[in-house]
Amino acid sequence: MSSPTADTAGTIRPAHEIPAFERRLITATVSIGSVATILTATIMNVAVPDVMGAFGIGQDKAQWVSTGFLASTTCAMLMADWSVRRIGPKNTYIAAMLFFIAGSLVSGGAETFEQLVFGRVMQGAAGGITQPLAMMTMFQIYPPHERGKAMGIYGLVVILAPAIGPYVGGVTVDTLGWRSIFFLPIPVSIVAVLLATVFLKPRDPTMTVPTFDWPGFGLLTLFVVTLLVALTNGSADGWLSNHILFLLAAAIVGFLGFVYWELATPQPLLNVRLFAGLRFFAANIVSFVYGAAIFGSIYLVPLFVQLIQGYTPTRSGLLQFPAGLAMAIVFPLVGKLTDFGNEHRLVVLGLLIAALSSYLMVGAHTDTSFWEFAIWMIISRIGLAMIFPPLSAAGLNVLPPALVGQGSGTMNFTRSLGGAFGVNLAAIYVENQTAGYRADLTSTQHDGRSATMELIDQLQVFWSNLGLPEHFQEPLSHLYIGNAIVRQAEMLAFREGFLLLAVVTLLAVIPALFIRKKP
Fold it and tell me: What is d(CA 67, CA 59) in angstroms, rounded to the nearest whole number?
């Protein structure tokens, strides 16, 4: 049976009765908003070193500009289905885009790091509404046998944002400063609002309007926020400190309370009973890992090439551009292959390729060439492109039409949740590994080590040749060695981060095997 959609008069039409031209216009409308919000999710990463310098913070705090965005996206995603039923697709979409514009203005004008994070949270909340709304709309306007292709088209449009975004963001940061990147998506967002007033449909009057699940939303927010804060501060404050134990306990209470409440309430925010189906449950596990892998790598790679290899933001963004183009080419092809079935094979192959790419990055060092790193990125994006369309189709095609909206919101939720925890854990893991390597390397540099003394002697000769006074030579030599230790420690820590992403991505092959359709 074809999925229905509402026309401008509020009546219901089967998907196969919607003209192809109208489908394209609706697809373009929802895709533009997704591009604006996803662009903002990834464009920020090339500016993280500048933000760290502007506010005098380390990676443990800087990661909140990405984690805060993704966490608010995760929580807001579950409001999309309720909002569409309550005020309709058109009003939901317009309200979300206006809220996104407001968040962009707050971030661009932030005078403190806390204000910047608040603006990012506003942007993320808007993205959390527009992305599932777009998927919901696509599944409603395309018949089942064309949904794989539709996901490929939508995925292509969506993936162009993170492909082009880092380069555009890098150029903007180098020419206009990091604040200007928040103003880039505003014109696109205004266009999205104007198109939505014409092409998106008002509320379907036949839809029932559920009561919003505020207790469930509160418990979910409690779980996500407290766990992210605990993971961020655990190493610094001590995992057994009262502060961290309290946060972890609150996270456990939030999670268990959320699951219990969602099972008990007649109108749940998240229908956890959907996870009773093995294929849907497995698809969401893979979706979680997919989010962690793609957002984790998008966060780590720009930091590595800027902090370790000295890239400018522009060069850092350009590094990711070929990979984005490769992903754009692969997406439609994978969408067509998805319509032939065997989704699990495509997903497994994609996970293996993505894991291989992260493993190759473990060999990155200060002299790794631009194109060698670019090829690793291309391999990664080809693998990730092979996952999205078949995973979406496999997860949602097992649901009845009435539950597709909730299902799409749930899969977006798990992917975004994976992204939030992926960025958080990757950043904190690299920060902690850096501290460990720095301590180990520092302990090897002492007066009794001949190599250290030889290096100091060479440096002092170098300073003498430059004409520096003798009393400056030894302090400068120690400063040089200290900086070299920091860079070496950071490089080794980033390698560990890439290895962690490779292992996690590889482990996702196990649940991917369970999304196979039964004969």
Answer: 12
Instruction: Show the DSSP H helices in 265-403 as ranges.
Output: 278-307, 313-338, 343-361, 370-385, 388-396
DSSP assignment letter at 185:
H
Quick one: which of 327, 282, 234, 300 has its CA closest to 500?
300
Q: How many Å apart are CA 91 and CA 408, to the nearest integer?
A: 19
CB 473 within 8 A of CB 455: no
Give residue 2's pLDDT.
41
CATH number of 4-201+269-436+491-515: 1.20.1250.20
Asked if residue 295 lies in contact with residue 306, where contact means CB atoms within 8 angstroms, the answer is no
Residues 202 and 36: beta-carbon distance below 8 Å? no
* 8 A C-beta contact, residue 75 and residue 67: no
Averaged pLDDT for residues 146-172 = 72
- Domains of the chain: which residue ranges? 4-201+269-436+491-515, 213-268
Q: What percent of the chain has pLDDT over 70?
A: 83
The mean pLDDT of 67-87, rounded to a whole number, is 85
Structure pTM?
A: 0.78
46 closest CA partner among 295, 375, 376, 315: 315
The residue with tokens 């933001």 is: 313
Q: What is the CA radius of gyration of the chain?
A: 24
d(CA 162, CA 179): 18
The residues, any chain, with a CB within 8 Å of residue 166's CB and separated by 6 or more, are 42, 43, 45, 46, 298, 302, 316, 317, 319, 320, 321
If one counts every other C-beta atom within 10 angstroms of the C-beta of residue 257, the result is 17
Q: What is the dihedral of CA 300, 303, 306, 307, to 10 degrees?
A: -110
- Least confident range of 195-199, 377-381, 439-443: 439-443
Kindly tell me if the per-residue pLDDT of 4 is higher than 50.
no
Across 156-183, b (16+ Cβ under 10 Å) vs e yields: bbbbbbbbbbbbbbbbbbbeeebbebbb
In the structure encoding, which two tokens stand for residue 284, read together? 């969401």
Are the beta carbons of 280 and 398 closer than 8 angstroms? Answer: yes
